[in-house]
Amino acid sequence: MPTALGYAAHTSKAPLTPFQFERREPGPNDVQIEIQYCGVCHSDLHQVRDEWNNGIFPMVPGHEIVGRVTRTGARVTGFKPGDLAGVGCMVDSCRSCPSCGEGLEQYCEKGFVGTYNSRHKDGAPTYGGYANNIVVDETFALRISPKLDLAAVAPLLCAGITTYSPLRHWNVSNGRKVGIVGLGGLGHMGVKFARSFGAHVVLFTTSPGKAEDARRLGAHEVVISTSRDEMKRHARSFDFILDTVAAPHDLNAYVSLLKRQGTLTLVGMPDKDPVLKAGNLIFQRRQIAGSLIGGIKETQDMLDYCAAHSIVSDIELIPMQKINEAYERMLKSDVKYRFVIDMASLR
Ligand code: NAP
Ligand code: ZN
Ligand code: ZN
């Protein structure tokens, strides 16, 4: 069986430390990937610290994985050794329920198998991408264009698809006024996609120092969300708002900014649930929704769209040894705008 070297948290209170473990022997449908880069998602931090109360330890996080195929099983048709490949948040699903049938494996009725902090169908724990290799069924591997900077592609596998999917689903396009809340890993991709789809983009941030970057990334306007006056100026004006914030905050302030029948979609998942004012929704027939990553087909569509439009993430490359420091900085919203681990640092 292939041996993997990575970093793991052994309890929710412990920092990540070096960890050696086994991957499964590649089966006929599997590809083995030498991981070159892995993005650092705020979900990694939520799970490592067991904020969602579902932690399986030891935990090797990481679901923004890119690298090169080193081995392929006998029945693999989509990849050959040497090809670039990516793995996102899922490594399997039931493959037979209506959601899986529609290519929406993230909503699998039996629950998809997560890339880490989850269990394979045989009950074995899954280990993620903070490691030097991974073995995955080719159905859940993504094709990566060699045209883009590989390290900056990694965050597309989660931050990219998690913002692309709802912006597409709610038809964000020319002539629509769209808000993105929070300029972190997800938020900065949301700004890039919404702008690329032709919308008028407004970025809401609690960090005044990010305003200039937000404009450079594609926002037409920036609102400092702690200023009531600035918020009020946009009352009843948005078609769609995407909320990427990782910490508890007041959603009612954003609902008030929606037009009649506008939608506020949540992708950020703080450890406390929001309190909503029903009247704020009822009187303007407004809607609140949620959205989870994206299916494999849509993830491939998003990667192909990014290759065609030269869209990648703005990243800060770190060695694996700096991961605990990176988490502390992420908690302070001090990341521009996604940490990506360089796996060469493990060798
Ligand atoms: P991130 O890089 O840490 O960005 C989150 C941003 O939220 C921060 O940069 C900050 O932006 C803002 N923020 C932080 N604390 C805040 C507070 N107390 N009040 C208001 N704003 C605050 O995190 P991320 O990786 O983008 O992930 C964001 C959230 O999405 C996490 O909860 C993560 O688990 C979740 N997620 C969901 C999915 C899904 O499928 N739905 C997928 C991936 C991640 P400003 O400085 O601009 O205010
Ligand atoms: Zn993620
Ligand atoms: Zn299913």
How do the strands and helices of this protein lay out in sequence?
Elements: E1 3-8, E2 17-22, E3 30-39, H1 42-48, E4 65-72, E5 84-87, E6 90-92, H2 98-101, E7 113-114, E8 133-137, E9 142-143, H3 150-153, H4 159-169, E10 177-181, H5 185-196, E11 200-205, H6 211-217, E12 221-224, H7 228-232, E13 238-243, H8 252-255, E14 258-266, H9 278-282, E15 287-290, H10 296-309, E16 315-319, H11 323-331, E17 338-342
Parallel strand pairs: 10-11, 10-13, 11-12, 13-14, 14-15, 16-17
Antiparallel strand pairs: 1-2, 3-4, 3-8, 3-17, 4-5, 5-9, 6-7
Helix pairs in contact: 4-5, 4-10
Bound molecules: NADP nicotinamide-adenine-dinucleotide phosphate and zinc ion (2 copies).
CATH class of the largest domain: Alpha Beta
**Distance linking N and C termini:** 19 Å
Describe the sheet with the most strands.
7 strands, mixed
Catalogue the ligands. Answer: NADP nicotinamide-adenine-dinucleotide phosphate, zinc ion
Radius of gyration: 20 Å
The tally of domains stands at: 2
Number of strands: 17
What CATH calls the topology of the largest domain is Quinone Oxidoreductase, Chain A, domain 1
Q: Segments where pLDDT lies below 50 for 5+ residues? A: none
